[in-house]
Amino acid sequence: MSNAPLQKPQTAPVAAAPRPLAAPSVLPLRPVAPPVPAGRPRRRHGLVLGSLILLVVLPAALMAGYLWRQAADQYASTLGFSVRQEESTAAFELFGGMTALSGSSSSDTDILYEFLQSQELVATLDRRLDLRGLWSRPENDPVFAFDPPGSIEDLVDYWGRMVRVSHDSSTGLIEVRALAFDAGDAQRITQEIFAESSKMINELSDIAREDAIRYARADLDGAEARLRIARQDLTTFRNRNQIVDPTMDTQSRMGLVTTLQEQLAQALIDLDLLRQTTREADPRIKTAELKIQVIQSRIQDERDKLGAGTGADGAFADLVGEYERLTVDREFAEQAYTTALAAFDAARSDAQRQSRYLAAHVRPTLPEQAEYPQRLILWSVAVLFLGLIWSVMVLVGYSLRDRR
Hints:
Structural class: alpha+beta
Helix content: 55-70%
Order of helices and strands: HEEHHHHEEHHHHEH
Number of helices: 10
CATH topology of the domain at 73-217 and 353-375: Bacterial polysaccharide co-polymerase-like
Radius of gyration: 57 Å
CATH class of the domain at 73-217 and 353-375: Alpha Beta
């Protein structure tokens, strides 16, 4: 019989019973909204449509009818020019190299640009061409035509519409476009503009030439008067002192003093020889001593006259000093006169060589076809702005309605 311990029999685990499923929760039923009904025209829709017709469609139609049926054709004449300044060189300058023969002045073009928009030019062309009559010919075009009873200020404003001036400051080129209701009138306007511009530039050139010559002439007159005074002072000095050239007298007097000094030296030598060879009572010694005294006295007198000593008033050296001062004044006046004369000749020569003129690179054209008014562009821009204004008004109206 086995002694192994008894083991309990293993039993299979019993599966847990499944839990019962919870009953689904039932949501309460809500009423379903009815479908959106079909849109119906409202009063505000009619107002929007009416405003579109009133503010956009009707003005656009009226504008189109006026532009294509009543607005007169406008012809454009173009003119292009620049201010040139020509300088011819002298013959000796040509050997040193070629220099620029022409150039443009930006200041002249700026002045001319302002002149083309001035009341003076408008009044001048109105007297010459009757601008009021030319620009008021279309009787059935009150928008683009000029009103004849208008003042000169009104004509200048209308000039700004009909005459366009463009200016390129970098190149100095000016372009003018003139409009008129007749092709020939447009060309005449540009031709007169070119003629008046040329006249104005010539006047500026004449003024500059006259100023340069006048200033040089004034300097020359001043230098000439100064030279005349210097020469008159020198002549007065010579007449007063009865000396033509004190320097020459000084040289002659200095030569005399030198000669006397030589004679004095020889007389002193002769006296020494006599004293060594003869007795003291010799009469020749007295004669030699007297000769020496006379020579010394004469030398002293000549030195006093030259101003080298303590002589009388009006020493000759003072006369020489005054003469040298007058001579220096005269020489300086002569140099100033020579310089002023050369400057005057140069200014006159430059004034004759230099000239400003208008060079037309585009002469006044004669149009064959009317380019203005640009009907389609004007009508499109007007319709665009009308549409924008109408859209803004509608948006503002709806925003005010939503705030209520």
